[in-house]
Amino acid sequence: MSSRRSRNRLSGLLAAGALMALVIGVSYAWKKSRDSLPSSRGEKSERCSSVCIVLTKDIYESGVDWDRLLNLSAVVIVPPGSTAESGSANFPGHQIIKCSTEEGVWSVVRHLRKDIVVVSPGQLESLPEDIHRFSKPLTKVP
């Protein structure tokens, strides 16, 4: 009698486990298909890119639209020896990162992993080889 009861309990547990696995798989597939569909407002296709700007003298002199950068979720990196931060008085301080070395600038770019990094290649040392894995380098503010 006890062996029949243990078999019934085992088959019940197996059936419950299989049912739970099926429910989890179906809910995962449903969520995955729902996320892949474009939203009705088109948020994914019109999403603003996040921007990281290495603020050199060239970029600063070309004119920086600080209000537009706020809307782009931009972070400004000030490289060593740069004095081009005077016009950023109304830009939030927590979005300005001052670096003391060139290596520090690229380390910040790697860790932020923004979609785009705006850099003036003439002012800075050459771009590191691996920077393309983290951000897309551009020479003009988008």
Automatic annotation (TrEMBL):
Protein's GO biological process: peroxisome organization
Membrane topology: Single-pass membrane protein
Domain of life, source organism: Eukaryota
Keywords: Membrane, Peroxisome, Peroxisome biogenesis, Transmembrane, Transmembrane helix
Signal peptide: none
GO CC term, one of those recorded: peroxisomal membrane
Gene3D superfamilies in alphabetical order: Peroxisome assembly protein 22
Compartments (UniProt record): Peroxisome membrane
A Pfam family matched in the record: Peroxin-22
Entry function: Involved in peroxisome biogenesis.
Family, similarity comment: Belongs to the peroxin-22 family.
Protein name (record): Peroxisome assembly protein 22
Species this chain originates from: Lachancea meyersii CBS 8951
